[in-house]
Amino acid sequence: MARYIFITGGVVSSLGKGLASAALGALLQARGFSVRLRKLDPYLNVDPGTMSPFEHGEVFVTDDGAETDLDLGHYERFTGVPARKTDSVSSGRIYTNVLEKERRGDYLGKTIQVIPHVTDEIKDWLSIGEDEVDFMLCEIGGTVGDIEGLPFFEAIRQYAQDKPRGQCIFMHLTLLPWIKASGELKTKPTQHSVKELRSIGIAPDILVCRSEGPIPQKEREKLALFCNVRPDSVIAAQDLSSIYDAPLAYHREGLDQAVLDAFQITPAPRPNLEKWDDVSERIHNPEGEVNVAIVGKYTQLEDAYKSIAEALTHGGMANRVKVKVSWVDAELFDREDAAPYLENYDAILVPGGFGERGTEGKIKAAQFAREHNVPYLGICLGMQMAVIEAARNVAGVSKAGSEEFDHEAGEKRFEPVVYHLKEWVQGNQKVNRSVADDKGGTMRLGAYDAVLTEGSKVAEVYGTTTIDERHRHRYEVDIKYRKPLEEAGICFSGMSPDGRLPEIVEWPDHPWFIGVQFHPELKSKPFDPHPLFKDFVRAAKEVSRLV
Ligand code: GLN
């Protein structure tokens, strides 16, 4: 049965709990253990699928079609373990389950309460798959003391009590602020945070303390004494220049050893960190730089395109270059010439997105890339924009557009080259949708197979003609435009296995122009860069050498 590590946070949010959890997962793997990482989010949304990327950052999609928190992306990137639907849960999901059971009469007339009904629902969820791995790492979103987080904290407290002694530990992440005026690192906020945690019955076994610099021995001992942890379980988490240094940095600080000690696992298996040494070496020793423009809408918040930024970094590592990303707001050139905004980049990426705002600019970005032989990667909406561009400017469909924009505007203005998909096949099941459906969880979601055309650019890039990739979209390129578009020169080089849904388009006579209906960025890892990103950055590197 799995050992559980519960990861909580205190003092302030955004301390990098997700990253710490992911790095710890990687370190346990390096010692030969199997791991699974999970996220418990206290908010009331059923899942982040309907939340704005401005509020919540990117929505990370799993193979089995769940729309989850972006921390699951970190987990996958660090451990390579594909996340599942059951690795992410919110208060909204838990309460929905409880209320559905109540309506069905499953509780046999009982009064439904937070304890035990909500906490039991959380504990049932925690135990899913407990026999499958050595360690289950469960991160609780938010910070201790948040009202909405209380049922989760209570549930993990109970869970540790229900299990045999020594099967669950608690790791608490806090901040040690540096007070410049007095030149001191302050431990008081951490003491308060641990006090808060202990008041709800949870005593941390390990403290991970974010700080700008090292923690002097004196402060370490003080923290240990006042927070009732062992001095060697006070782990410093200093700011790092790359997130991919985290596993090695945490190892040097003794985090994995402290965890194994807390579980009394002796002798501790020796870690093999070669993979992370290599990752770190590549990150810190680039031999050049390429400049990539990401032309999108959510450019103010980098987290909105988290996986894309990471996948580009991975592509850079594979090519030994640093990828410098510039976030370019597509709306800037909705109505004017795109060239002044785009001409200084080695490659252009148009990412996924929703709604009409900025789309004319994205279409112009695709046109600029096509006409100027600049490498172009269009992802999801970025692929749809490339197809609309081809239809308007090459195939002569002057009113080409997406039904998405007409639906939003409530009037018909475009010829729908991209249309709302109403029926498709998932596995061996038919899925039906209508425009009036709920917004949450109703897109084409999760992993789908695609078949690539032999001899195409993408087949060469992937090194195979059958792939599966993750989807998250409601609209599709209409197959009935395949013929006129191919006559215009763009090639539909990847299709769904039944041949009905265009998955990939490319311009064969362009150095590198590929649009994909799926999200390849979700599967890229620092130690296993996604082939599309690897080759996209290679193409950008070639351009950067030419200029
Ligand atoms: N808005 C588009 C659709 O729903 C694209 C979605 C995306 O880019 N993820 O089809």
Automatic annotation (TrEMBL):
One GO cellular component, as annotated? cytoophidium
Indicate which residues the UniProt annotation says bind UTP: S13, K186, T187, K188, P189, T190, Q191, K222
Residues annotated for ATP binding in this entry: S14, L15, G16, K17, G18, L19, D71, L240
Which reaction equations make up its catalytic activity? UTP + L-glutamine + ATP + H2O = CTP + L-glutamate + ADP + phosphate + 2 H(+); L-glutamine + H2O = L-glutamate + NH4(+); UTP + NH4(+) + ATP = CTP + ADP + phosphate + 2 H(+)
> What residues form the catalytic site here?
C380 (nucleophile), H519, E521
Span of domain CTP synthase N-terminal: 3-265
Q: Name the pathway.
A: Pyrimidine metabolism; CTP biosynthesis via de novo pathway; CTP from UDP: step 2/2
- Keyword terms: ATP-binding, Glutamine amidotransferase, Ligase, Magnesium, Metal-binding, Nucleotide-binding, Pyrimidine biosynthesis
Output the GO biological process annotations, alphabetical, semicolon-separated.
'de novo' CTP biosynthetic process; pyrimidine nucleobase biosynthetic process
Q: Does the keyword Lipid metabolism apply?
A: no
Q: Which InterPro entries does the UniProt entry name for this protein?
A: Class_I_gatase-like, CTP_synthase, CTP_synthase_N, GATASE, GATase1_CTP_Synthase, P-loop_NTPase
Assembly and oligomerization = Homotetramer.
- Name of the protein in its database record: CTP synthase
Gene transcribed to yield this protein = pyrG
